[in-house]
Specification:
6 helices; 11 strands; Glutaconate Coenzyme A-transferase; 8-stranded mixed sheet; Succinyl-CoA--3-ketoacid-CoA transferase; 3-stranded antiparallel sheet; CoA_trans_fam_I; globular; about 240 residues; alpha/beta
Length: about 240
């Protein structure tokens, strides 16, 4: 079995990056972002990227760094709010955007991993989402045809991995990460902890190691809160 564990994030991406490639990047908001791998993509200087991700990070964090360096040509996303740089680049025509309903984005990625080139959904029928796409009727209801999403590279973040690449995610940080791990030619995973072989009960594994090509320990684990909302504690 090839050795999957790499010494650092830069080594884990070596030989995988090229101009014009498509990258899937896990995360929902700032939860489950591959925050150690993204800076290495920026440092590599590759350009013309198509990035598939729920969003493009927040100001100063996550995929925002690749927008700021003008390395991203197109985003395939479902949420573009609260990122001023994303907004500016899109409105100026500098950044191409393919906007998806969130469930549709998740299913397109899952379909890519499952080898299903197209499927039908009622979500988006009659809206701009359906423009230019085939619409068919099933049992008296209209459905729009969506196509799979696949990538040259998936960068994802997990909580724990064993040397074979079996992964566990922690709570909401799971989000898009497991589906993306199945839908790319190469999957690179940064993890908070690498455990000994045989540590995992098979029933606790969220992503089997067959989908994972490279593993590296995270160098950044900030777990930022995108929008902190508080209220005064009620008196007893």
């Amino acid at each position: 079995m090839p050795r999957k564990i790499f010494d650092d994030p830069r080594a884990a991406l070596e030989g995988l990056l090229f101009d014009g490639m498509t990258i899937m990047s896990g995360g929902f908001g700032l939860s489950g972002n591959p925050e150690s791998l993204i800076p290495e993509i920026r440092s590599a200087g590759v350009k013309g990227l198509t990035v598939i991700s729920n969003n493009a990070g927040a100001d100063g964090f996550g995929l925002w760094a690749l927008l700021e360096s003008r390395q991203v040509r197109k985003m395939i996303s479902s949420y573009v709010g609260e990122n001023k740089l994303f907004e500016q680049q899109y409105l100026s025509g500098e950044l191409e955007l393919e906007l998806n309903p969130q469930g549709t984005l998740a299913e397109r990625i899952r379909a890519g991993g499952a080898g299903i080139p197209a499927f039908y959904t009622a979500t988006g029928v009659g809206t701009v989402v359906a423009e230019g796409k085939p619409v068919e009727e099933f049992d008296g209801k209209a459905y729009v045809r969506e196509t799979w999403l696949r990538a040259d590279l998936a960068i994802i973040k997990a909580w724990r991995a064993d040397p074979s690449g079996n992964l566990m995610f922690r709570k909401t940080a799971r989000n898009f990460n497991p589906n993306m791990a199945t839908a790319a030619k190469v999957t690179v995973v940064e993890v908070e902890e690498i455990v000994e072989p045989g540590t995992f009960d098979p029933d606790t594994i969220h992503t089997p190691g067959i989908y994972v090509d490279r593993i590296v320990l995270s160098t950044i684990n900030e777990k930022r809160i995108e929008k902190l909302t508080t209220r005064e504690r009620e008196s007893a």
